[in-house]
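Listing S7. Sequence submitted for prediction.
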Amino acid sequence: MKHLFHCSIALLFVSALARPSVAQEEGFTQLFDGKSLSGWKASENTDSWSVKDSTLMCDGPRSHLFYEGDLAPFKDFHFKADVMTTPGSNAGIYFHTKFQQEGWPVKGYECQVNVTHKDPKKSSSLYAVDNVAAPPVKDNEWYTQEIIVKGRHIVLKLNGETMVDYTEPENKQADNSGFDRRLSEGTFALQAHDPDSVVYFKNLRVKKLD
């Protein structure tokens, strides 16, 4: 039994070593250098964003941090980010959006970031389009959010588990909500929702799809 136990531990160790690190993920490019906001531009309340220990932190009044680096714009892509919420916090990851100096981004879709905030639309919801009520993640723990867009197809995953699988209707028209939630092309934006919401992001990376 002892021999089998040691063999099992050894196999687990080798398996862990065999897994590719974030830096080794084939075809993915980092969007955040872990040291600065280079390539990113904040809208209103720029002080809501800071960098510490290779992590982006939002803490303060409403602000949106838009990617404006050389890889933009994006159309078909596979995006990944490691996210950690704190109790009662709310944030988001926008895609197919564009820079906007004030207010909630009008263009594109939002992938919700929210585990215990009062908003019933929880993490990995395609906000106001295909909502998730009970995500399998917890506050104060890192999780991996994936966003995959190919043609009219959107897939959102949490820690590898598909939470949203949505196909946008052909010739979808903007509704009267004031938000243009339609696929086109654009960039990514991270959301600082309110002064009581502290959320962390790291390892933001993307692979463009043919």
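Caption to Listing S7: primary sequence and predicted structure tokens for the chain studied. Residues 108 and 182 are 6 Å apart (CA to CA). The longest strand covers residues 198-208.
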